[in-house]
Amino acid sequence: MSLDTAEKQKLIETHQVHTTDTGSVEVQVALLSKRISKLSDHLQGNIHDFASRQGLLKMIGKRKRLLSFIKDKNVQRYQEIVKKIGIRG
Q1: Sequential DSSP letters for 24-82
Q2: Spatial separation of the C-alpha atoms in residues 35 and 50, rounded to whole Å
Q3: Does this model's pTM top 0.85?
Q4: Which domain holds residue 19?
Q5: Engineering a disulfide at 30: which of 15, 50, 54, 81 sits with its beta carbon 3.0 to 4.6 angstroms away?
Q6: How many domains does one find in the chain?
Q7: CATH assignment at residue 78
């Protein structure tokens, strides 16, 4: 369920704010969203994998906290992140 290095680097390059950025909120949310989608696909086929389900819920909570942080700081950045990643309907 983890991301390989090439996939992770591609996500970082797509969502980074500046050239050396690897830990901004945008990058963290993008990486978490990708991991969440991969884990969701896994859980659809393995419904009794309760440990992975708990990890999924923790990741969703962390992404929610990061999004609420950025929404409090800058609403426009929040809206751009949500639109770029394609979450929140």
Answers
A1: SHHHHHHHHHHHHHHHHHHHHH-TT-HHHHHHHHHHHHHHHHHHHHHHHH-HHHHHHHH
A2: 17
A3: yes
A4: 5-85
A5: 15
A6: 1
A7: 1.10.287.10
Q: How many residues does the chain have?
A: 89
Short-list 26, 1, 2, CA closest to 11? 26
Residue among 75, 65, 73, 63 nearest 34 (CA): 63
What are the residues whose beta carbons fall under 8 Å from the beta carbon of 52, sequence distance 6 or more?
A: 1, 39, 42, 43, 46
Residue keyed to tokens 């390059």: 13
**Single-letter residue type at 82:** V
What token pair was written down for 77?
Answer: 């950045």
CA distances, 14 to each of 32, 45, 47, 79, 84 (Å): 14, 30, 32, 16, 10
